[in-house]
Description:
CATH architecture of the largest domain: Alpha Horseshoe
Structural class: mainly alpha
Distance between the termini: 57 Å
Order of helices and strands: HHHHHHHH
Amino acid sequence: MFGEEHSSTADSYYLLGITKHELGDFCAVLQSRQRALDIRRKVFGKEHSSTADSYYSLGITQHALGDFSSALQSIQRALDIRRKLFGEEHSSTADSYYSLGITQHALVDFSSALQSRQRALDIRRKLFGEEHSSTADSYHSLGEAQHELGDFSSALQSTQRALDIRRKLLEKNTQAQLTVTIHSGSHNMH
């Protein structure tokens, strides 16, 4: 009914790639994600959010397969599209910067990784605040780049900040679960 060149077909390839990723079959994931990208570029064009999502997921798979140069190109393309569509202050843009930094790190380009990771942190702090898991992830990631560049004092501060946020979030989550348990238990007593 839809055929190969339809957005629903692209969505199916995209979801197939997600499932294959969970199964660890990265070569098959690469094929599915590349096919989704090809269809989305044809159906939506080169400057569409679904096209950006396909570039991003393709880059993640390329990274997992150790093809860091291709991953860098795909993630950079996703970032370029997302910046154009959503601007600098968007969570998808932050995710692209974050992943770009990870790939740059894998390519031993620590200075670029530091810049990308810092940009992701800046956006996430603005969008989510200091007490958010994505902000903690960015602090941790930034600390890794600072460590590789020999800035151990900054690395210590960043990783300590990540740890503090994660501890606080765990504590809040534990307290919330305890409150729910106590509250539901009190209903059972009536």
